[in-house]
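Need a sequence for this fold. Nothing fancy.
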């Protein structure tokens, strides 16, 4: 890839730019960034990452191999309409827009495009995203590999069918929030059982990291790992019994299904507005 243009200069765009530069996939001079009107943010990116920034659309888009759409979904329709003359079938479109279908992007651009729709998560900021990519039929193998390389600079990357992206959104797009929710509960409990806040924070973070690393490195299933912690008649068994009585596992399943449903609903709402 010789040139990447990024439209929308928020936290997701910054995380991806940082990942690309840290892994030397592209040089700063190959990345061009624009946004709606926040010049200060562009100056910050230019000074921190030495990428090219600005509002001269010819300069941003000319000869770009790929254009990344990274504004909020609510701004996507206006943004895509505003740049549609710069979108051609030769340029790969990489979208990080949650709940915006590939066909909505093409309808807004009023042309057929090669589009890769992605769902990263906020851990992209530290290179630990779990991302999924879905392509349309106009994306070449070479374009897909280039995009996969970009997302691998910010973490683990899976390839899925577009229909699966709502499920991915419910699972790993929103996923960090479920883990933070658990951490919040652990912090509250630590306070109630009399542990010092700072020390408890350290214990909680290391417990989560350790368990995640065990899931990754051991060949055991989550259930096997859980059973290995649980001594008969011991503390874990007593604790887990409370979770089971409150059907916490089923609640987590319902939570992820509901988030996936909501993703589908938001996508349908967006598509129906685009069609009007
Ligand atoms: N936060 C999350 O967990 C995830 C977010 N995403 C998606 O990433 C995208 C970006 O999210 P953030 O980085 O959190 O947003 P953000 O609010 O930090 O940044 C959005 C950027 O878009 C720019 N913008 C707004 N309207 C524009 C326009 N008409 N033309 C050009 N630029 C415009 C803004 O100036 C700003 O720089 C969203 O579409 C979101 O759905 C995807 C996966 C996970
Ligand atoms: O909550 C949301 O709608 C977005 C999509 C994935 C994570 N955050």
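Here you go.
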């Amino acid at each position: 890839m010789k040139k990447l243009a990024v439209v929308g200069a928020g936290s997701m765009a910054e995380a991806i730019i940082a990942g690309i530069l840290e892994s030397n996939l592209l040089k700063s001079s190959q990345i061009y960034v624009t946004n709606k009107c926040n010049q200060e943010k562009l100056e910050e990116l230019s000074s921190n990452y030495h990428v090219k920034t600005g509002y001269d659309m010819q300069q941003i888009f000319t000869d770009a191999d790929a254009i990344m759409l990274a504004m909020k979904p609510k701004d996507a329709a206006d943004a895509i309409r505003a740049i549609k003359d710069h979108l051609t079938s030769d340029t790969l479109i990489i979208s990080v827009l949650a709940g915006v279908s590939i066909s909505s992007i093409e309808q807004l651009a009023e042309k057929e495009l090669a589009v890769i729709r992605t769902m990263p998560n906020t851990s992209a900021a530290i290179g630990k995203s779990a991302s999924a990519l879905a392509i349309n039929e106009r994306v070449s193998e070479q374009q897909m590999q280039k995009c996969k390389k970009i997302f691998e600079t910010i973490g683990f990357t899976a390839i899925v069918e577009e229909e699966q992206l709502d499920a991915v959104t419910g699972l790993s797009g929103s996923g960090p929030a479920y883990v933070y929710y658990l951490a919040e509960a652990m912090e509250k409990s630590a306070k109630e059982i009399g542990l010092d806040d700072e020390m408890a924070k350290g214990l909680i973070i290391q417990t989560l990291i350790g368990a995640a690393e065990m899931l990754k490195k051991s060949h055991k299933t989550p259930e096997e790992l859980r059973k290995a912690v649980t001594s008969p008649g011991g503390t874990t068994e007593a604790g887990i019994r409370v979770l089971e009585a409150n059907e916490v596992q089923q609640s987590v399943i319902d939570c992820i299904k509901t988030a996936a449903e909501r993703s589908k609903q938001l996508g349908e709402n967006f598509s129906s507005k685009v069609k009007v």
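For context: The chain is about 55% helix and 15% strand.
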